[in-house]
Amino acid sequence: MRDLSIYIHIPFCARKCLYCDFLSFSASAAEIKSYVNLLLREIKEQSVFYRDHRVISVFLGGGTPSILPAEAVGRILETVREYYRMTEGAEITVECNPGTVTAEKFIDYITCGINRLSIGLQSTQDEELERIGRIHDYKTFLETYRMARAAGFQNINIDLMAALPGQSIASYRETLERVTALSPEHISAYSLILEEGTPLYDRKEQYCFPTEEEDREMYQMTREYLEEQGYHRYEISNYAREGYACRHNQVYWQRGDYAGFGLGASSMVCDVRWRIPETMEEYRAYVENMQESPEAGRDCMDLASWQKNGGKQGVKERQVLGAKEQMEEYMFLGLRMMCGVNCRGFHDKFGQDMEAVYGAVLDKMMSQGLLLREDGYIKLSDRGIDVSNYVMAGFLLD
Ligand code: SF4
Q: Which terminus of the chain is less hemmed in, N or C, by CB atoms within 10 Å?
């Protein structure tokens, strides 16, 4: 029996943030209801392909999943439980944004078995939040956080962002201090990437962004300060108290099986990757065509052949990963983890030594001080983390 992680995409937000290029938009209550019904059907219909899997994590991401009525979240999780084999103690996370939750909603979440929250704060400075178009201020976040603790959540992630317009080293430091004072179990800290086509990109001349040096300083400060405060960095941008690393995200970096449901969601199961359509019309057609799926599907190999042979199902960018692509991903996803990639694991999976495939690039990166070898693992050095894109590009095979 293989482990499976389930990602469920909720594409709705109260309002679009100015930097956002995720698949998210606002919608009426009726549109949300109709989407949830499609989602329930998709989750149910696809379950025939996962009979040889057991679910170790479920992640409701977005968008803003907490915009859904708690009753809808409950129905989604009930459907997962009814049609999939859930492991005892599976990690069940919901992403929430301050301003979209109430104390009652959190209590309902606990009742339906959600055991982890991921709260999008980004900054504790109200002017910074306003410049990037977040719907909340710091005070609203604090209320959200306290309500979550009062409801009984003992595993909370807080998302932070560096390199925001108008952000200074001092204001970022204050954000780190205020957040760690709350003692969440997990902190994710990314730098803002200005994406073309977003309103913030179009207005970039109006703002003073941190320089590249300041961005680097914030990055170093994140690492040093969070480590001083007892957070273990387990991935380039993710920090956790002992025992609270996010199980769901580790599945992505370790190339475990994950099934994505909902608009635009990605999946990778048994080394086949695909994506669900991104427009509501296509998604509706995709779910409605599912009735034509073989009623006798038994496992993920049936899923692969159903996608390949059906033609009507409409999954996008379906790709069967060959050994070359699997090895590349093993290296560049695995190297994101601070523990690195396991040499023995590589051999077990591919029947070849990592040295035989990547000897030249390993030697080169080690001699440049970018990679280290420790206890049977290859991992990024501090310098290697700074230039991780360069290091990872070295693992692409011709
Ligand atoms: S809350 Fe997140 S997904 Fe929604 S608009 Fe803002 S950044 Fe995008």
A: C
The beta strand positions in 229-292, using DSSP E, are 232-235, 238-240, 257-261, 266-269, 272-275
How far is it, in rounded angstroms, from Cα 387 to Cα 373? 17
3-state secondary structure 302-357: HHHHHHHHHCCCCCEEEEECCHHHHHHHHHHHHCCECCCEEHHHHHHHHCCCHHHH
Tell me the best of 12, 15, 16, 26 to mutate to test the pocket of ligand 1, counting ligand atoms within 8 Å of each CB and taking the most.
16
The residue whose CA is least distant from atom 8 of ligand 1 is 20
pLDDT for 34-79, tens place per residue? 999 999 999 999 999 999 999 999 999 999 999 999 999 999 999 9
Check pocket membership of 13 for ligand 1, CB cut-off 6 A: yes
For the chain, residues classed under CATH 1.10.10.10 are 323-393
Q: How far is the CA of 134 from the centre of ligand 1 (A)?
A: 8
Q: How many CB atoms lie within 10 A of CB 349?
A: 14
Least confident of 78-82, 100-104, 297-301, 364-368: 297-301
Distance 298 CA to ligand 1 centre (A): 37
pLDDT in tens, 171-221: 999 999 999 999 999 999 999 999 999 999 999 999 999 999 999 999 999
Give the H or E element holding residue 49. Answer: none
Q: Which CATH architecture is the domain 2-252 placed in?
A: Alpha-Beta Barrel (3.20)
Residues 6+ apart with CB under 8 A from 277: 263, 264, 283, 285, 286, 314, 315, 316
Residue ranges matching CATH 3.20.20.70 in the chain: 2-252
CATH code, residues 323-393: 1.10.10.10
Q: At what angle do helices 343-350 and 323-334 cross, to 10 degrees?
A: 160
Token couple for 211: 């320089």
User: What separation in Å is there between the alpha carbon of 22 and the centre of ligand 1?
Assistant: 7
Question: For position 185, what pLDDT does the model report?
Answer: 98
12 DSSP 8-state letter: B
- DSSP character for 15? S
pLDDT band at 296 (very low <50, low <70, confident <90, very high): very low
| Dihedral over Cα of 78, 80, 83, 88: its sign | negative
pLDDT at 299 over 70: no
